[in-house]
Write a structure and sequence with these properties.
Helix content: 40-55%
Strand content: 5-15%
Distance between the termini: 71 Å
Structural class: alpha/beta
Largest sheet: 6 strands, mixed
Shape: globular
Radius of gyration: 28 Å
């Protein structure tokens, strides 16, 4: 049998009676929350745009045999996407229900199975049947199911589950490539692992932009700035130093940095330094071998070399967004500055089409140079003030400083990125927004970066407090692109704030945002709420499941219960990870309380739940009192005018 490929929808897979198994030599399921959320958001975007086909990539299969009228395949490549789609059918069913099973002689069997992993197969069988499930040793599966379950309450609120699942069933298509059963899989894996990456969209965009700059030396300078900005895995000044050999410490001053006036923050100063370096490189005279050896001898006697003049120290960090998203946030700011229409959306996969329609179509040299200059300055603001992931998987903002060192009568300078010693409010609030908003867009970053760039030395924390309240705590039907654009035009604009839904009994339908926001408010007002050192170093982490303190199905032995009137109210709920939710399950209050204290002895995971579990009992009165206290705190925080003195 030859290698064959076919573009198929889930509906066509069902009609063809295909089933799949994940072979034992493949990893089970490793997608993290960010990857699952990205797929869900991409699907939702495609649904809103009513695309005829949403192409989801390729899946490589080896046929393992026929069963009745059906065919069974081992999934060799692409199993993470395929498994995620199948888990959507497990959770939502609706129009995806036919994809859930394949019937053989009238007996349904799961369309995707996991040979040798009996506990995983049993877990899904029980989950589908609605029976009690036993925990499995795969956190990613548990978290993915929880994220899919909460999707319609959070990201797709108001979207018809029936229409959305029908869209996925009919319009999502993959290229299924089948290889012969006797294929040498070792060689096949080598081909898969060694295949080269295609030219990225950002590289194509760079080439298109630089065509507008005819002078080769000028084009080189702008290309170097672009390249330094494009590497999101390090800090931009270190990237520039590595790419060009420029002594970036000469462009930095500690005092100027305190008011955002350092030369590194200004594209014109960086371009001037690059131009000077170009001139110096062209003017370098040829030296004799004797002169080179004499210079090296002098350096060795001094104990230093030319490379020692400037050092750079920074811990490894990861960016919270990729370069295509930074480009689009920058473009939105550029368009607003030049009184041009905003982007209708931010979308990684449409980088080229968005730039073509909104920038390149009528671009001139001055547009391109001004955009790349703005890109440098926005990227510098991003590195200076926006959170990054540290090696400890914590959000940090590392401040840049110049550190002089004297050795043998010479002064050498090191640029150092310092991690803060304790939690800072500006960092924590960004962490709250990061975890509660769409990972594929982060629209809040556009007005924040624009404000930091346009108001050097100002109180950025106060602005972010204001932005968070007036962007996300309003009852409006406007989409986030339009809402955030308003803050580009009028940074301190005010909207009518609304938190009335917190008084409703929504249970697991409460938007997760309000739990995240409350955690920040509790930390912000910590000295008035609770005197506990653990509160000082509190950090907001990813959570995806709403937990009932008094469970929905309480055990008879649980004497600390609330009535049905209180069960789904805000006071009886907390936001936790899916694994914690499964661990707590329907356990009695006292048992949950003890587990919480055991798990949070050193560092608190939830401030709201810490307040709940300070009580040694739980009932309607305590749940109602807790709800009132929390909503009053939120109302008081929303009533604070952070724009005072700024607007």
């Amino acid at each position: 049998m030859a290698i064959t490929s076919r573009l198929m929808s889930l509906q066509e897979i069902v009609a063809a009676r295909y089933s799949f198994q994940v072979p034992i030599y493949q990893r089970l399921y490793v997608w993290e929350e960010e990857q699952v959320k990205t797929l869900l958001e991409d699907l939702l975007m495609a649904y809103h745009e009513q695309k005829d086909i949403f192409y989801l990539g390729g899946t490589l299969l080896v046929e393992r045999g026929r069963s009745g009228k059906g065919r069974c395949f081992d999934v060799i490549d692409g199993q993470q996407r395929l498994t995620t789609l199948w888990m959507m059918s497990v959770v939502w069913q609706q129009e995806l229900k036919p994809f859930l099973h394949r019937k053989e002689r009238g007996i349904p069997s799961n369309r995707i199975t996991f040979p040798i992993r009996k506990e995983v197969n049993k877990f899904f069988e029980n989950r589908i049947a609605g029976a009690s499930v036993t925990a499995i040793d795969n956190k990613q599966i548990i978290d993915a199911l929880a994220l899919i379950k909460s999707f319609f309450q959070d990201e797709a609120h108001g979207v018809s589950a029936k229409l959305f699942t029908r869209f996925i069933y009919r319009n999502v298509k993959m290229v299924l490539t089948r290889v012969p059963e006797r294929t040498d899989l070792n060689k096949l894996f080598e081909v898969i692992n060694d295949r080269g990456q295609q030219l990225q969209h950002q590289d194509i965009l760079k080439a298109r932009l630089l065509r507008f700059i005819p002078d080769p030396r000028e084009r080189q300078r702008y290309a170097q700035m672009w390249d330094a900005c494009s590497c999101m895995g390090g800090y931009v000044e270190k990237n520039l130093k590595d790419i060009t050999g420029l002594k970036v410490a000469e462009l930095f001053n500690n005092r100027a940095s305190r008011t955002d006036q350092e030369k590194l923050a200004k594209a014109s100063e960086v371009l001037h330094a690059l131009s000077r370096r170009q001139t110096e490189s062209m003017g370098t005279k040829t030296r004799t071998l004797r002169a080179i050896l004499q210079a090296r001898s002098d350096e060795e006697q001094d104990g230093e070399t030319a490379d020692d003049v400037e050092r750079y120290e920074a811990d490894d960090v990861r960016s919270i967004i990729g370069f295509p998203l930074l480009l689009q946030h920058t473009l939105r700011i550029w368009l607003q500055t030049h009184d041009k229409p905003d982007l209708p959306k931010i979308l990684d996969k449409q980088l080229l089409s968005l730039f073509h329609k909104h920038f390149l179509r009528n671009a001139m040299r001055a547009h391109v140079t001004s955009f790349i200059e703005l890109l440098w300055e926005i990227r510098y603001c991003f590195d200076k003030y926006v959170i990054k992931w540290s090696r400890q998987d914590q959000h940090v903002v590392c401040k840049l400083r110049l550190s002089p060192t004297t050795s043998r009568g010479k002064t050498y300078y090191s640029l150092v990125r310092d991690e803060p010693e304790s939690t800072e409010g500006f960092t924590l609030l960004q962490g709250m927004l990061y975890h509660s908003q769409q990972l594929t867009t982060h629209y809040w970053l556009t007005p924040l970066l624009a404000y930091i760039h346009r108001h050097p030395g100002s109180d950025h924390f106060a602005f972010l407090r204001h932005l968070d309240n007036h962007l996300l705590c309003t009852n409006t039907e406007k989409l986030l692109p339009e809402r955030t654009h308003g803050f580009l035009q009028t940074p301190w604009k005010k909207n009518t704030l609304d938190h009335s839904l917190l008084f409703e009994a929504k249970g697991t339908a409460f938007p997760h945002y309000w739990f995240y926001k409350l955690e920040f408010i509790l930390w912000d007002r910590r000295r008035a709420v609770m005197k506990d050192q653990r509160w000082e170093n509190f950090r907001i982490t990813a959570k995806n499941s709403i937990e009932h303190i008094s469970p929905q199905m309480p055990q008879v032995v649980d004497t600390n219960q609330v009535s049905d009137d209180q069960r789904d109210r805000f006071g009886n709920l907390g936001l936790v990870t899916q694994s914690i939710n499964s661990e707590y399950s329907n356990r009695p209050f006292n048992e949950k309380r003890q587990r919480f204290h055991n798990l949070n002895a050193v560092r608190l995971d939830s401030l709201k739940m810490a307040l709940i579990y300070r009580h040694d009992k739980w009932n309607d009165a305590l749940a109602a009192a807790h709800e009132k206290e929390m909503i009053d705190l939120i109302a008081d925080y929303l009533g604070t005018d952070f724009s005072s003195g700024h607007a």
